[in-house]
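Quarterly update from the structural biology core.
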Amino acid sequence: HDRGPKLPSWQRLRQNDCRMPDSKPLSLVERGGLGAAAGIFTTFFTHPFDVIRVQMQVGVSGGTIETTTKLARQGFGALYAGISAAWLRQVTYGSGRLGIYAYLLDADKSARAARGETGAPSFAAKLGMGVTSGSIGAFIGNPAELALVRMGADGKIDDPAKRRNYANSIDCVLRVAREEGFLALWNGAGPTILRAASLSGATLAVTSEAKIAISERTGWAPAGAPTMFFSALAASFVANCVCMPFDVVKSRVQQAAPGEYSSALECARTSVAADGVLVLWRGFVPAFVKLAPYTVISLTMLEKFTALYTGGASAL
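Predicted structure, tokenized:
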């Protein structure tokens, strides 16, 4: 009996890329919860790099080593300043970014199955899903992002009288709303959303595509640790190159005093005029050093948590 030509390994991988056990697709809330859990787990390993990045972006800095050394001398707590804001950020932005992306993949798979189509979505489709999920997550999580920047940058202010001294992320959010107005919680929302759209689009889409390509060439399992490491490493480098200018502007706008900048564009112009165009990539090293393991750990844990929760389904 002729079963037709045998498909090459790369085609079989692409057909199985989004295949799940015969079970009901996870809801958006479930996907978001798994995304938040993976993100919170990851912050314990990567948060110090966020503190270093923010302190470099909001002020004059001699570089990564100088900033790291200064923080280390202040003690262990300085490296984890604002950790509660990082957790709040994962509950809002992280759950939206990872949860919505995985949910959109599920929806796309169901739609294609209903049309009798097989295989994984195209890279362009994955890129669109990453941009969409990152943008929505960033808008929801902007108050937490603002708290993360302010709490991480507070220790850089030499004059203790000028420090804001927020007790925790909730205190920061409430004080900003009370002292500066509710809408101040969305200061820097424009560059935050642009950063998240570019970062999520590149990170999630490149990771999804790269893990298939790596599996095709090495024979490694698509969700295996070596595959996830190298695919996330490549995605992190691309994402950082694209999103750093938005990240620098976002951090400076969110740390600024009320009225210091009239817009994100003015912040960018002022920063470039004062420090040169490379200021827009200030903090690249700690951002990459943070994003690479963050991407590897968070996406790996998202795969593991999803498999545990569902009995074997893939998140991405």
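Residues 83-114 form the longest helix (32 residues).
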